[in-house]
Amino acid sequence: MINLSGRVAFVTGASRGIGRAITLSLAASGAVVLAGARDRHAEGVVREVVAAGGTAEWVTLDVTETESVTRAVGVALDRFGRVDVLVNNAGIVRDRLMMRMKPDDWDSVLATNLTGVFACCKAVMRQMLKQRSGRIINISSVAGQSGNPGQANYAASKAGLIGFSKTLAREVASRCITVNVVAPGMIETDMTATLDEHVRDTLLAQIPVGRFGLPEDVASAVCFLASDEATYITGQVLGVNGGIYM
Asked: Which of 131, 198, 231, 240 has a C-alpha 20 to 30 A away from that of 78?
């Protein structure tokens, strides 16, 4: 069992799906979790953590607004004095074939999925450098590795996240801060629940392990990378995809 007791974790996009699972898993491993989200669904996640004997708080967060990011991280620092783990999970999709994609579809996805990660990393970096420790885990996607029709904006943001993470990992490694990427494949979330049966069957046929992943599969990878067992791992992309991308 991974032990994260005494760690303070900040999770973005914590209200549902993968973010919810990450929040619950980090808390179950002993971390105090700040659940950042735009909507009040995160309050329900916090209640789940508390009911299970863990510690978590909801903080309002819009990663596309610098003031919101600064304020949310400030809450964590004022309340607990440190941030040991940052999980950048917040993300959106605006799927459309590139020829029909509107500039706003492009801009909004990049603003949330990539620029938002930059803002959150920048907000915690001074404290992590000061404490000479930290774990940054960015949630990318198999789409950022292989591409996916209709997702030029999303794939670009997730591929950019990989390059960003590798660069930041090089910059902060000497201060005992690791930066890694988890790249999920097809995971059972609200997004995949809307797929029609034919599309699901087509995708399922491409997954060697023969099933879609669960949010908990991603959360387990995040908890490992947040732990002391992963101190010598940085700048890496951990695929949680059932073998769909090898």
From this structure: 231
